[in-house]
Design brief:
The chain is α+β, with helices and mostly antiparallel strands and about 210 residues long. The protein contains two helices and eleven strands. The strands form three sheets. It has a six-stranded mixed sheet with strand order 2-11-10-5-6-7, with no helix packed on it.
């Protein structure tokens, strides 16, 4: 009996832990050009309905730094932007909490903005979960190296496929031509053999002389 109660309590605790968990999602990496705006998306999955007390928090850690700083917080239906940090007057909340969207917009990005952004969300009673991280990479111009390499690989693969298909149909054509020529030569030999045998087997008609 005690073992049954213990097992039941463990199952209930497991269900409770699942129903109070929250999963936060962001992109893995975002690229942007100097002087442009970039949107950093953040959403979450929760077993509960979206709570009016839902919260979003964003932190930023520059490349090479050990500590992160708070740059944005949403709570009580209102956004709070850090007006003293590196994104002062450049950060805008563009999410929709009722749709579980806590995205922010970083305006006029620069090389100094390179770093890791961390989003955390709470949807009471779902408050247990890990934040998600997205790395921002700012470039002076579009990084074409990756695109060129990808395009070259795709081009090589397509070229090989076209070459394989061409070789396949060429081989089929050559085989069909060879079979056709062999078939015609066999028919020709058979026809000549039949004519020769007919000439050999043709009966000789005896000449009969009739005298009057």
């Amino acid at each position: 009996m005690l073992s049954v109660l213990a097992l039941t309590s463990m199952v209930l605790l497991g269900i409770a832990s699942q129903t109070t968990a929250i999963v936060v999602y962001t992109s893995w990496e975002r690229h942007a050009l100097v002087g442009t705006d970039v949107r950093l998306s953040c959403s979450f999955f929760s077993w509960q309905w979206t709570s009016p007390d839902v919260t979003f928090s964003w932190h930023y850690r520059p490349d090479g730094a050990k500590d992160s700083i708070a740059i944005f917080h949403y709570a009580g239906g209102a956004p709070y932007v850090d007006n003293k940090g590196p994104f002062r007057d450049r950060l805008e909340f563009v999410g929709n909490p009722s749709r579980r969207d806590g995205s922010i917009l970083i305006k006029n990005v620069d090389f100094a903005d390179n770093g890791t952004f961390t989003c955390d969300a709470k949807n009471p009673p779902d408050i247990a979960g890990r934040p998600s991280h997205v790395r921002l990479l700012v470039f002076e111009k579009v990084p074409v190296q990756a695109g060129v390499i990808t395009g070259a690989i795709i081009g090589v693969v397509l070229g090989l496929l076209i070459l394989i298909v061409a070789i396949y149909y060429l081989m089929r054509f050559l085989v069909a031509r060879r079979v056709f020529s062999l078939s015609m030569s066999k028919h020709g030999k058979k026809g000549k053999g039949k004519e020769g045998s007919q000439q050999k087997q043709k009966p000789k008609v005896p000449l009969v002389f009739i005298s009057f």
